[in-house]
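Colleagues,

Please find the record for the two-part complex below.
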Amino acid sequence: MSNSSVQRNRPQSPNIQIYRPQLTSVLSIANRISGVAVSFAALGLVAWLIAAAAGPRSYAAVQNTLSSAIGQVVLFAMTFAFFFHLCAGIRHLAWDAGYGFELRTIYASGWLVVVASVLLTVVTWVAALLMRA
Amino acid sequence: MATPPKTTRSSLGRAIWLGSAKEGVADWWRERITAVALIPLTLWFVAAIIAHSSSDHAAFVAWLKAPFATLMMVLLLIALFYHTALGLQVVIEDYVHSALKIPALVAMRLGCLTCATAGILATMRIAFTG
């Protein structure tokens, strides 16, 4: 038996291509993805501050970009990514403190993260649109 | 019989602060500390954004010039980019296994440092001259 065939026959675990997604694993990778997304939002925050420091004209240009359809969709997605990362992060801090490891609690807190991040996103946008009106 | 200790560290290990981790937990701790700091800082920022969603430049500058807003923005930028650097470091270490790993880590760190500095300078400029 050659080396390559030995390597081929070795079982791989967990093989994520055939592993059934669970709330726990989906939220885990979503926390990482949302964190990367919020990194780009942080980049946008710096661009926004620089534009404001540069003067009214550049600030207006950034505001116009954010007000465009694409800008609003990106902002909405960033809002959700932020609130998701916030809620999932608080769940992680509870785990770090030693709480919430029972299977029941893990699923309950997982769904709580999903519901809370959706609600916070909607409430934020409704409040922002009411302030603008 | 004495209750078992809450740590796997031996008494001697604790006393002389030796063990498998040593300073390895420093980054883990800093990620948690910045995470805790970011809860009030980001919620303040979101509340401010909601209040200023229709503000023009003059109103925005007047808001950021207030000492409390300047302080919160600078603290937000420090905690945000520190936390971002620690988070992206783990992502790069997990997925980049080529010769690009070290350059990617260096570029990411320098990028976070540059962004934080640029954001703080812009905030200072608005606070002192805007």
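Chain A has one domain: 22-132.

Comments are welcome before we finalize the supplementary table.
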